[in-house]
Specification:
Elements: H1 2-14, H2 16-44, E1 56-59, E2 62-66, E3 72-77, H3 79-86, E4 94-99, H4 102-105, E5 109-112, E6 119-120, E7 123-126, H5 130-133, E8 138-141, H6 146-151, E9 155-159, H7 160-167, H8 170-173, E10 177-180, E11 183-191, E12 205-208, H9 213-218, E13 226-227, E14 229-234, H10 241-256, E15 262-265, E16 271-272, H11 273-279, H12 288-319, H13 322-330, H14 335-367, H15 393-396, H16 399-425, H17 429-434
Parallel strand pairs: 7-12, 9-11
Antiparallel strand pairs: 1-14, 1-16, 2-3, 2-15, 3-13, 4-14, 5-6, 5-10, 8-11, 9-12, 10-11
Amino acid sequence: MIQYFKQAWTLIRQEKLFSSIYIIGTGLSVTIVMIVSIVFYLKIANIYPETHRDRMLTVSMATEKSTKGGYNSSAMMSSHVVETCFKSLKSAEAVTAELLTMVMEEGNFVQPEGSKEQLPVAVRHIDTQFWTVFPFRFVEGKAFTEADFQSGIPTVVMAESLAKRLFGSATEAIGKQLSINFRQFRVCGVVKDAPYVTRKAYAQLWVPYTAHSVFASSQYSFTQSLGFLTVCILAPSASAMEQVYQEATENIQRYNQTLTDLEFTVNGQPDRYWQMVFRGLSSGTVDFSGLLFFYGFIFFILLMVPAISLSGMTDSRIERRISEMGVRRAFGAPVHRLMGQIISENFLFTLLGGAVGLLSSYLLILLGRQWITQLGELVSMPPPEGIEVVFTPSMLLNLPVLAIALGICFLLNLLSSLMPAWRYSRREIIHSLNLK
């Protein structure tokens, strides 16, 4: 094998034009596939503070149907449903509910004490179990307590970067007053920033949802079943997720027995985290098998199209060495050994192209970081005003991403070299020796 790689390196130096075209062509195809792969990896893999994505279940949207055909409404869930069907789960490690309103999504501003400047910020309205489901690292202070939450006391946990921007340091922020949408909140803790790709945990400010004005007016509900709350459920382990799912389904069935002329459904939820990513904003039943087949087909096409072009280049390169194949066959080299030589030599070309493609994909992801995470989403959700999307080195340079790149190179190498290797290694010896 080492000899094959030495020979391939000699060929690269001897045929510089061919090698450059092949490596660049490989690099372009790997770039496209790696961008898609890295984006979905960032959306699904365990990343701080969503370090438990592999054992997390979510319920985002629900539907309330009239059994008499009167109406059919979809929205988030009421506090009554959350308490009855999900907070009561015995098999779950923790269950957190979050308030989602249009006010949470946009239009939030902070005003530092003694300043007239209004700064746009991302605010998340949560409960105390949020800090168990999403284990943030506290730089200073601590989270608001259960007593604060139950009493609706206006306290806030702040991201470290915002604390430094407003108060100069995380230490100085603790105990200070902060005006959020012209209401005073006391800073009780500062946490390490969450990256924007952690959509379930990301914010700059985290406040108790009981401190929201909606709480006093409607208890987060506009029907018995529908309201403004979503749920994240943390299972004790990945193997226990099915048990949690079954218990949640049974709770929903029991809840439906208490309804009159109505049916409540969550359309196949709770979803695993990766299912939530593919579901998007859909409130209906989602065919996840069909979605995976669709994305798998797209992935295959992205590899197959360049592989066909590279296969032609590999074919022409091998054809110039067909007499060498004939000599080796005449001295007893088996077909599988010749095929292994061709595939191994070609893998060096592909590996170099893969390195070029990986570096190019990193460059494009960093340049397009403000929109690149929207790939694969049915509804475009750009970052809120003033929010900078940041990728840490650990998110991009890690073993899973490098393993994906290596796997893509190996697959692309097989697609582009297997057929030429099989065809030329099985040629009649006499034809190979007489080829000029």
